[in-house]
UniProtKB/TrEMBL annotation:
It comes from Tetracentron sinense. InterPro entries: DNA2/NAM7-like, DNA2/NAM7-like_C, P-loop_NTPase. Pfam families: AAA_12 (PF13087). PANTHER family: DNA2/NAM7 HELICASE FAMILY, P-LOOP CONTAINING NUCLEOSIDE TRIPHOSPHATE HYDROLASES SUPERFAMILY PROTEIN. This is DNA2/NAM7 helicase-like C-terminal domain-containing protein.
Length: 341
C-alpha cells in the first residue's frame, strides 16, 4: 500500500487520488493476501467506502471501435469519444484485409496448451503472433512509417515464448504501455474462450455480433504459419483429416489410413514431416510425378527424403450421389519395409 505512505506526513489536510478502480488490479501471489483482498488499491477502497469520485468521461486515445466494448462492459456507457478519435485520420489500416481493422478477434483454433508451472502457452498462437508482427514490420519498412506494437498476454509462459520467438529481430521494450490507439487485435481460441464463463466469453460474443470475428486460417500468411507450427510441433491431428486447411481449394479430397497416422507420429524429423506435407499438398492439387511408361500399379509410391516412401492410391467416394476422386494415403514407410506394398 505505497499510496498510504505520503498520507502519514504531518500537516496534510487534502489528498487527491487519481486512478481507475476498474483497471487491472495489482497481482497478489499469496493466497492469504488474496483472500484478504490486498490486491485492492487505495482508490478502490475509498470508492467502496462511498467517497465521492469524479469521472473523466471523455476519452481522447482509442479509436471508437476499441473503446466501445469496455465502455459498455465496465463504464455503463458513461464514456464518450472525443472529436479527435472520430476523425477519418484516426482510421489506420496497417495491414490489408478486414481482419486488420481497428478492432477484431482473430480465432486461432489450433494448437495444444502446454502448462509451465502455474502458467501456460500455446505455440501455434505464438507463431501466429510472430507472423502478424513480421507482416507489420515488412509493411513498416515498405511504407517507411514507424509502427509501435504492444503484445500483451495474461500468461507469463506465453509472454516468454513470444519473446523467444521474436528474438532480437525488432527493437523491443519489455515495459510496454497497455494503452491502445488505432488498432486492437485479440488472438485466441474462440471456442475455448466462449465457454470460459469469464469476460473473455463476452469479448468473443461481442466480436461476433459486431461482425469483427475472423478465423486466422482464412488469411493465407497466417494459415501457413499455423501449418508450419503444427508440423514443427508434431501436432498433426488437425492436419491429417479430410477437411484440413492443408487441402482447401485442392482438386482432390484426401483421406488417411490409420497406418499412415501411426507412422507419421513416429517420425521425429521436422524436415521429413515438412516434406510429406508439401508433397501431399502438391498431389491434392493435381500434380503427378512422371511414371515410367507402362507402370499401371494402382498403389503409388513417392520418395520422401532419402529413407522413406509415401504410399498412396486413388479412390472414389460417393457423396450426395456424386462420385468424388479421393487421394487415399496408406502409409509412409522406411525403404527397408516398402516391399510389403
Amino acid at each position: 500500500m505505497e499510496s498510504t505512505i505520503p498520507l502519514q506526513l504531518p500537516g496534510i489536510r487534502h489528498a487527491i487520488l487519481i486512478g481507475d478502480e476498474r483497471q487491472l488490479p495489482a497481482m497478489v501471489k499469496c493466497k492469504i493476501s488474496e483472500n484478504a483482498e490486498f490486491g485492492r488499491s487505495l482508490f478502490e477502497r475509498m470508492v467502496l467506502l462511498g467517497q465521492k469520485k469524479h469521472l473523466l468521461n471523455v476519452q481522447y486515445r482509442m479509436h471508437p471501435s476499441i473503446s466501445l466494448f469496455p465502455n459498455m462492459e465496465f463504464y455503463s456507457k458513461q464514456i464518450s469519444d472525443a472529436p479527435n478519435v472520430k476523425e477519418r485520420t484516426y482510421q489506420r489500416q496497417f495491414l490489408q484485409g478486414n481482419m486488420y481493422g481497428p478492432y477484431s478477434f482473430i480465432n486461432v483454433a489450433y494448437g495444444e496448451d502446454f502448462h509451465a508451472g502455474s502458467s501456460q502457452k500455446n505455440m501455434v498462437e505464438v507463431s501466429v503472433v510472430a507472423d502478424v508482427v513480421a507482416s507489420l514490420f515488412k509493411e513498416s519498412v515498405s511504407t517507411r512509417e514507424r509502427v509501435t506494437v504492444g503484445l500483451i498476454s495474461p500468461y507469463k509462459a506465453q509472454v516468454f515464448a513470444i519473446q523467444e520467438k521474436l528474438g532480437n529481430t525488432y527493437n523491443t521494450n519489455s515495459n510496454i504501455s497497455t494503452s491502445v490507439r488505432y488498432c486492437l487485435w485479440v488472438l485466441g481460441n474462440g471456442s475455448t474462450l466462449i465457454n470460459s464463463g469469464s469476460v473473455w466469453e463476452k469479448i468473443v460474443i461481442y466480436a461476433k455480433d459486431r461482425g469483427c470475428y475472423y478465423n486466422a486460417d482464412e488469411d493465407k500468411s497466417l494459415a501457413k504459419a499455423i501449418i508450419d507450427a503444427l508440423v514443427e510441433l508434431g501436432q498433426l491431428n488437425d492436419l491429417f483429416i479430410m477437411d484440413s486447411l492443408l487441402f482447401r481449394g485442392a482438386r482432390w479430397k484426401v483421406s488417411f489410413c490409420d497406418d499412415y497416422l501411426k507412422s507419421m507420429a513416429r517420425i521425429k524429423s521436422i524436415a521429413i514431416r515438412k516434406e510429406v506435407v508439401d508433397l501431399l499438398m502438391k498431389l491434392s492439387s493435381g500434380w503427378h510425378h512422371p511414371h515410367k511408361k507402362g507402370n499401371l500399379n494402382l498403389m503409388k509410391q513417392y520418395t520422401v527424403g532419402k529413407w522413406y516412401k509415401l504410399v498412396w492410391s486413388v479412390d472414389i467416394l460417393i457423396e450426395n450421389s456424386n462420385f468424388i476422386q479421393v487421394l487415399k494415403t496408406w502409409d509412409i514407410l522406411p525403404l527397408a519395409e516398402i516391399q510389403n506394398y
